[in-house]
Amino acid sequence: MEITLSHYLLLAGAVFTTGMVGFVIRRNAIVMLMCVELMLSSTNIVFAAFSRFHGNADGHVFVLMNFAVAAAEAAIGLAILVEIFRRRRTVNVDDFKTLME
Amino acid sequence: MGEHILSWMTFFPVIGAAVIAFIPSERKEIIKTVAAAAAAIPLVLAVQLYIGFDRGTSAFQFVEHYTWIKSFHIEYFMGVDGLSVPMMLLTALLSFICIIASWRIDKAVKGYFALFLILETGMFGVFSALDFFLFYVFWEVMLLPMYFLIGIWGGPRREYAAIKFFLYTLAGSVLMLLAMIAFYLNVSDPVTGGHTFNMLHMFNQANHSEWLQLTNVRHLIWLGLFIGFAIKVPIVPFHTWLPDAHVEAPTAVSVILAGVLLKMGTYGILRISYPMLPDAAQWFAYPMVILGAINILYGAFCAMAQTDMKKLVAYSSVSHMGYVLLGMGAMCKVGVDLQSAQAAINGAVFQMFNHGTITAMMFLGVGVIYDRAHHREINGFGGLGMQMPVYTSFFSFALFAALGLPGLSGFISEAMIFMGTFPAYRTVAMVSALGIVIGAAYVLWMLQRVFLGPKNDKYDSLPDINAREMFTLVPIGIIVLLLGVYPMPVLNLMKVSLTNLIKVVAG
Amino acid sequence: MELLNLNIPSWSDLAYWRPEAILCGTFLAALLGDLIGRGRRPAISFVISVFGLITAGAYSVAAVLHGGAAHTIMGDLIIVDGMAAFFRLLFILAGLATVLFSWTAEEIMGRKRENKAEFFYLTVLMTAAMMVMAEARDLLMLFLSMEAVGLVSYVMAGYMRTSLRSTEASLKYVIFGAVSSGIMLYGLSLLYGMTGAMTFDGIRAGLLAGEVNGLSLLITVILILAGMSYKIAAVPFHFWCPDVYEGAPTPVAAIFSVGPKAAGFALMIRFFYTTLAAGADPSASAPLIELINWPLLMAVIAAVTMTYGNLVALRQLNVKRMLAYSSISHVGYLLMGFVLLTDAGLAAILFYLAVYTLMNLGAFFVVVALNNHIKSEELDDYAGIGFRAPWLGTMMVIFLASLTGVPPFAGFAGKFYVFTAVMDRQWFWLAILAALNSVVGLYYYFRVVKAMFLTRPAEGADTTPLKIHWLQYTVLAVLAVPTLVLGFWFGPLKVLADQAIGLLSTGM
User: Is residue A2 one of the residues assigned to a domain?
Assistant: First the structure.
């Protein structure tokens, strides 16, 4: 079987959907952050695939940058989470209700 | 000052307010004196305006015309005609008197007088602006000071009354804003071809775009403007803010509210709606007189039911503004002879002026007794005529003027309105005339309960009216009396301009 | 196409990028200063930050005065044009005011365990990142600048790390921020796929050249809008806004409410205008906009956003939370300018953003100043406070009246411009809805005024006059005076906004 552009796109779509669904149904903040990373990865697949398809390198550059951004985002997210965990001893977002009215 | 008399009148008070802002708040007497001076100068200028005004032309006079915000075609355009001059005089007179009447204010004096002067600037501006945008800005400038004047210095329910006033008026004025923008986008300047806010260009139907000539569009815009102005008048059913605001406001603010602010609603209709949308004005003529009749009767009946003197006076305002609407509506009917139309509209504008002076006297009168007895319940008094004879004569004078006693100014304007309305709308005029009877009833009823009958011993020690209070009442009294005998000084001012208005709308 | 169109920036390029470069340098210097002071001398970072912001501001003003054509920098990634210059000034004003005001804010300086200097240099960094957002003209730069602003914001929202409210707000911000940027990124990748281009111009050309399927373009645009709506807090991506504003220190909430929002709008203007509407041939632009029924989409988002923000604000008893919802409703007014992607509409957005920055910053700063004394943002605690600090109260009235949109304050001029732009294209229902919304706004804004001036304080309450720091008065006056003056003298600002947008359409 020949692997075509659509295969990559379908894969990316599946990964993106997985991330999205996971984000919506899980209540553990760490898992939610991981799901976001899945979503970012899916876009990397799309960019890489289209980069190849269009024959220019712009997409590849984007993927590299995206790695860095995703890492920074995860770092900050986890740092904040650690700060909360120290006080709360939980990472379940449903428990974070100080600001709800 | 001769060149820019309107600008000076308009902006002198706000300069006074700025000066007051920098006087230390302990120096109360200085603040009051500065305020009085800042209100006295426009009064002097108003006299100059009265003398210098050319009664023979309907053109705008004392015109000042400058570019203001070029990219939006907004101009600083001021000028007065026969419709605005009486209002300018009224504003100048009442503002000055109200500053004097506020002499006893001792809470946050600085803020009170500064806000009052800003209010005065707004009023002058509305009556002399000839650029729609400028008009709107002045119109809205008054809201904030009014909100605070009612809200800080008012009676027990002042917070509620203040925000209610503000919300009602703003709701009306955003509709006016949209109508204004619609005009701006659809009226072209004949010289440059661009958009314009110049009212004179808007008056000229030839400058209107095709879209603006569609009947439905015109009627909708008319209604938007009408609601904006109707809330200010106030026309039933938009009147419910008025009793609250009047009752809670301090005396001087009630005077301004009833004496000047209500007139801005009818002034706006005459200045803006009528000449810009004359066909819609004709279309709306019948509803207008019906609303006038409802105002007259509803206001009068409500006034009869009141036990609070101030509320009674407030509802009498609703009733009296109904006469103005009656005259304004009757003027628009096509096919009525010129004499009747002239009587109707001259009467209406004259009634605006007279109501301003007469209600001012009534509110000041209520203020005098409230300062002494600290309540306004009609049933709580009795026999004050013996205790305070001078006060009683002043107050009775005001009440008789209000019920339209011949020889006082209110009679003349009401008579003119009925003379003008009768040929146009016979039935409505006849029904409205009932209002005069009811008016007499509530006025006499109050007179009897408060001043006649057995004396209430509680008030044995009430002092009679003092010199300062006399000073506020006497000038207005003289005007009411003089115009009742010889109304020409005011009628001559407006006649030519109003005849021109009839030609535009119904001609 | 070249394999890599990323050019190494040359020195001559940097000449047009001085303010950004200066701010980056300032950030590093302030960070270094903090290290030298061992985290105990925030004054070093404060002074460096203020100095850097002023210098960058001076260069930005000079760039505006010199005018001139647009310059692209780093290949095609960044463009410095009239609009970029406009937003530079706006962001520097917001950043500088925030830094100056925070110096006397107890919420920042009164905390024991936090490193205060952090707040100053992070603000500087955010200012620089926001400027880049307004200059990006390439998907890569768009994404990077948005993330840069986002990452700094997450940290700033969690500034009070010993406070649960602050850290929770920050977590909420970072999680939902990450997911919204993920969604947007997916949209960007699809757009790249459709057109094979990264630059906005290239995308536009690609869209016009190829046969674009309306539905897939619509889905792509909606995905991208999701990320941008999060940044500007438009319904339905607004939910983080009240929580973050309430949880974060008030000075942070102040700059959040104007800075990233304005930057988001700048980005949206450049992106959607260039890709969907602009170009030398205006007749060619209509198909793309009509293909996805853009006007209706935006009109509905604008209408829902302003109405929702206003209605929920009515119920708030916490001033900070109320201001948060009010800022959502203002986003609704701003989005009205997007409905038709016309020059007038976009210029109206710029104009409104400028006045919004002044008045909203001012209102938040008054909350900060009061919080220094009464340690509360609850409406009930504001009773009678207007008489304890009359000038502060007066300025709050100016800001709130301006937010309401009552003349003669700047907010009215902004509303007037937006309404005019919308009514010019006959979107009457939207204009009427917005007008009625501003009446609703009056009620809750003036509840604050009522509490400050009309309500008498409870028996035995403290009625001594409040001592407000001179620096606070100065900053507030710098915001209040233009709020008043722009209400009746807004011609120059309008010309500036018009020019900025005019260059956008011609100076490509």
Answer: no
